[in-house]
Specification:
- The protein is mostly helical.
- It is about 55% helix and about 5% strand.
- Among the domains are: about 90 residues; about 140 residues, no CATH class.
- A hairpin with a 6-residue loop joins strand 5 and strand 6.
């Protein structure tokens, strides 16, 4: 009883630690709301006020958002938080942070179910609580983080269903709910279900009526989103990251061109037909993407997609590498019933990301959590038991704890001191300061004009302004709402005092756009630092906005009257024709 109470107290301590790591300075690190967070927040706010998104769609099952057609769960989940806390970054990020804390609790429960060992379960909870990968994704409004929580919850309920089959219905409901969040479950779950059926086939056969009924329940629960996800518009998102639809240097294009060349050069025709064909090369390409997620440098060293990693850190602590290897060794050697599910989950997780661009990818392979941490905890537990054979056992155990603590403290320093400064660009830092300045200038100027490089593909300046000003959704929709075409704002899109000069929909390049004309008098022009950098004698900006704690500028603000005077002085001025 005393030991059980100690475990509960230690688990409570781990949960407090996990909560601190995910909630402290949540509104300031990451350093600003990026375009996805701004879109999630404003669309949830718009649904709350009007039951429509910023495009005017009524209670959509996929949000067009920044033209990437996001799944709906995070948007709807965010509504009560915005209702209570208001439209701000705290309300937008809090669901993800709470899900991250929930992952710690569920990891403990799952490990107990798999191994029946509360010490291994406690170590597993601790490992995921301090995991850089988990912390990072818990601190942003990232749909991928909810996938881990939902899959853990559904699996815990499934394992409870092996003893009480009524839990299969709850499990199937949560699995079905996960399809409404991010694209990973659409590809992961079918294979995961097959694996579960093989591992637990004897027990499932005993409860076949419950299993069949819960399977029907899953299909009915998931049918609305599956029907919506099959539409061509929604498939744009998955097709956009597929290596076979989106060729990039070194991937599909290079591989498939190489196939044709080798076929022509190879004298052994029959062997050439087998080795140098598109299907064989495609399989190699996918295999390479899959195996890259188990690469030492990807998991333990700096690199990868910068927005998903802490400076000079991998997704896991370097000290975890030998512990992970030890965990794999002990897990294979000790024939425990739970190991099948652990390896099934871990080996299936990267399959989703394998045929996509930018592999290895921390977001698309996030379901490797928490199995990496559970295996590592397994290694720690049995290494400690092994150390106890030696007289120097205490020294070895303290050394292990000391090295891990140093890794952990280094991570905290890198994340809370360096991440904001070095990676603020990837969080579109600067819009909040820009918005505050523009609001202070409202009485002095008629319009705020955004130049094309600000509103070009992938930036979507309008969503930041809507979010930061909590702009009245009904008023915005009455003005026509958002109008996008192929990832760009249409024509001279505008609302309130804002005008967005963009020619993306007319497929004009930056060089074809007149940066000296078309400005209304008595306005402010918000430009990219490169817009007027090389223009001799051009007037100085009245305001410059920089990245976080940096001398690198992100916005230059000019008076339109100064630009008009410059154009007149050099004889290139044209009257506004619209």
């Amino acid at each position: 009883m005393k030991r059980f109470l100690n475990i509960r107290f230690l688990l409570f301590t781990v949960i407090i630690l996990a909560s601190f790591l995910r909630l402290w300075r949540l509104d300031s690190n990451p350093p600003s709301a990026n375009w996805d967070e701004s879109s999630i927040g404003y669309n949830a706010y718009s649904i709350l006020k009007t039951a429509r998104d910023d495009f005017g769609q009524h209670l959509p099952l996929s949000f067009r958002s920044n033209d990437d057609y996001k799944t709906p769960l995070y948007f709807y989940l965010d509504i009560p938080f915005i209702k209570i806390l208001g439209l701000n970054i705290w309300a937008v990020r809090l669901p993800s942070a709470l899900a991250g804390i929930g992952v710690v609790i569920l990891t403990f429960i799952l490990a107990v179910q798999l191994f029946g060992n509360r010490k291994i379960a406690l170590l597993s909870a601790l490992m995921i609580a301090v995991s850089p990968w988990s912390i990072h994704f818990s601190r942003g409004a990232l749909e991928a983080n909810l996938v881990v929580f939902l899959n853990l919850l559904a699996t815990v309920l499934f394992l409870k269903g092996l003893k009480n089959p009524k839990y299969f219905f709850l499990s199937s409901a949560v699995f079905g709910l996960s399809l409404y969040n991010y694209l990973i479950p659409r590809y992961f779950l079918p294979l995961f279900f097959i694996g579960l059926a093989l591992i637990y086939r004897d027990i499932l056969w005993k409860h076949k009526k419950y299993v069949a009924a819960s399977g029907v329940f899953f299909i009915l629960f998931a049918f609305p989103i599956l029907k919506d996800l099959s539409s061509p518009a929604v498939q744009v998102r998955s097709q956009g990251v597929n290596i076979f639809n989106n060729p990039t240097p070194g991937d599909r294009l290079t591989f498939f061109q190489d196939v044709s060349v080798k076929k022509m050069e190879d004298e052994h025709i029959l062997l050439s037909q087998f080795l140098h064909n598109r299907r064989f090369y495609a399989a190699l390409l996918v295999l390479r993407g899959y195996l890259s997620h188990f690469d030492f440098s990807y998991l333990f060293l700096p690199g990868g997609i910068l927005v998903y990693q802490t400076p000079q850190m991998g997704l896991m602590y370097l000290v975890e590498f030998p512990l992970l290897l030890a965990g794999i060794y002990f897990l294979i050697r000790r024939k425990l019933s739970g190991r099948g599910l652990v390896f099934l989950w871990l080996l299936l997780a990267p399959l989703v990301a394998a045929p996509t661009t930018s592999t290895p990818h921390a977001s698309r392979s996030i379901l490797m959590l928490p199995m990496l941490q559970i295996i590592t905890a397994f290694g720690v537990y049995y290494l400690i038991l092994y150390f106890k054979r030696f007289r120097t056992k205490n020294i070895l155990i303290y050394a292990l704890c000391g090295i891990f603590t140093l890794n952990f403290l280094y991570y905290l320093h890198q994340y809370h001191v360096h991440y904001q400064k070095e990676f603020s660009f990837y969080w579109q830092y600067g819009y909040e300061e820009l918005n505050n300045y523009l609001n202070s200038q409202r009485p002095n100027y008629d319009k705020f004009i955004f130049m094309p490089k600000i509103t070009e593909i992938g930036d979507h300046a309008h969503i930041f302004l809507l979010f930061l000003n909590a702009y009245d959704p009904q008023k915005y929709l009455d003005n026509g709402g958002t109008r996008l075409c192929d990832f760009g704002l249409t024509g001279r899109y505008s609302f309130d005092q804002y005008i967005f000069r963009t020619e993306v929909c007319n497929f004009k390049t930056q060089d074809q756009i007149d940066i000296f004309n078309g400005f209304r008098p008595n306005s402010l022009v918000i430009a990219n630092p490169s817009d007027y950098r090389d223009v001799l004698g051009f007037p100085s900006p009245i305001k410059v906005i920089y990245l976080y704690n940096s001398d690198k500028s992100v916005f230059m603000i000019y008076r339109s009257n100064d630009i008009i005077d410059y154009a007149k002085r050099f004889g290139i001025y044209k009257e506004i024709t619209q």
